[in-house]
């Protein structure tokens, strides 16, 4: 004897499938959004995937003292331009990477060719000054009546605090001199 009451067929209509599909789509979108946020938080917490670890600065743990970097610019008197750093000084911890922008403006209706050189005072600190990106020692052709942004990315080697000749330095002056390179 066959019992029909034991087997029941559920009828699922298209509205129910459509509603479930929309809910799954919304849920997946929210999940994808939240998983990227969770990934970033996790990487930041543990210093993974090239994201710096927050909350710890190894240089601070080593008791590195802050150093003030002063920016000075000089321009050859024959150049019709304005050359300056966007800031006058910055205070940093050795090992910290800093980016500053210098601005060069040609105030004349003619092209000119220039080159920037730099000097570090006190000189003994220069071996600990490391440039990652610099515009110095590059001949630049500056079009008439234009402005240029010249980035400088640098850091001070943390070993500056362990050298007997430099461990008492609290201030470094970085001077850029813009020279006229008439004959290029």
Automatic annotation (TrEMBL):
It comes from the Bacteria. Its main location: membrane. The chain crosses the membrane at residues 16-36. It is found in: Cell inner membrane. Keywords: Copper, Membrane, Signal-anchor, Transmembrane, Transmembrane helix. It is a single-pass type II membrane protein. Gene3D superfamilies: Ctag/Cox11 (2.60.370.10). InterPro entries: CtaG/Cox11_dom_sf, Cyt_c_oxidase_assmbl_CtaG. The keyword Transmembrane applies. PANTHER family: CYTOCHROME C OXIDASE ASSEMBLY PROTEIN COX11, MITOCHONDRIAL-RELATED, CYTOCHROME C OXIDASE ASSEMBLY PROTEIN COX11-RELATED. Belongs to the COX11/CtaG family. Exerts its effect at some terminal stage of cytochrome c oxidase synthesis, probably by being involved in the insertion of the copper B into subunit I. This is Cytochrome c oxidase assembly protein CtaG. It comes from Candidatus Hodgkinia cicadicola. The gene is ctaG.
């Amino acid at each position: 004897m066959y019992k029909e009451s034991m087997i029941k067929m559920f009828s699922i209509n298209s509205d129910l499938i459509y509603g479930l599909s929309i809910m799954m789509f919304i849920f997946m979108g929210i999940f994808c959004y939240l998983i990227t946020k969770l990934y970033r938080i996790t990487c930041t917490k543990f210093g993974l995937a090239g994201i710096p670890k927050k909350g710890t600065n190894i240089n601070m743990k080593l008791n590195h003292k802050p150093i003030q970097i002063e920016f000075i610019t000089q321009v050859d008197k024959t150049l019709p331009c304005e050359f300056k750093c966007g800031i006058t000084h910055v205070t940093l911890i050795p090992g910290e990477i800093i980016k500053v922008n210098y601005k060069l403006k040609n105030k004349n209706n003619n092209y000119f060719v220039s080159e920037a050189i730099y000097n570090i005072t006190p000189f003994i600190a220069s071996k600990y000054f490391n440039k990652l990106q610099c515009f110095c020692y590059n001949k630049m052709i500056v079009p008439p009546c234009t402005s240029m942004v010249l980035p400088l990315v640098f850091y001070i080697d943390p070993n500056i605090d362990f050298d007997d000749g430099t461990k008492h330095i609290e201030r470094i002056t970085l001077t850029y001199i813009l020279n006229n390179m008439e004959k290029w």
